[in-house]
């Protein structure tokens, strides 16, 4: 589906540890994000794909349940169940869970992501230490009617505090934007 709607896919994917589950942390700028994660899961990571979605968004697109989507309802007690379920998924090496830890759509031009606390709870509950992979997706049209999709990943090996993960993701996101800009010059 991605190849049908995007003129070109430009991939810069960093190697990862294949024997562990993967927590894929991505920017959330469009409804394409889950499809991008699914593509990465099967083509690059070779894992079973899961993606956490806001309940109200998933209710409008129930067909995504068949593709690994499950819900989280913010500001309710069930949020703890969703976070525990995510930790359970990340306890199995064959799984990849995609999350958008800022918890909502943000403009492609957004520069400073603030992560919700759920990621910390998930990592604390995991029986196995998942690999944390950052994923930044950007698009550009240039002189064509269909956009090019730029997909970049980076493994995170730093301290597993919410603040350090957020800081490293923001740094990687900025590097991706600069790399995008430099490729045009």
Topology overview:
Elements: H1 2-5, E1 8-12, E2 22-26, H2 33-45, E3 48-54, H3 55-60, E4 69-72, H4 78-89, E5 95-99, H5 118-125, E6 131-140, E7 148-156, H6 162-184
Parallel strand pairs: 1-7, 2-5, 2-6, 3-4, 3-5
Antiparallel strand pairs: 6-7
Helix pairs in contact: 4-5
What does this structure look like?
- A 7-stranded mixed sheet has the order 1-7-6-2-5-3-4, sandwiched between helices.
- It has a single domain (21-144, 165-170), classed as 3-Layer(aba) Sandwich (Cobalt-precorrin-4 Transmethylase, domain 1), CATH 3.40.1010.
- The chain is globular, with a radius of gyration of 16 Å.
- It has helices at 2-5, 33-45, 55-60, 78-89, 118-125, 162-184, and strands at residues 8-12, 22-26, 48-54, 69-72, 95-99, 131-140, 148-156.
- It contains 6 helices and 7 strands.
Key phrases:
alpha/beta; 6 helices; Cobalt-precorrin-4 Transmethylase, domain 1
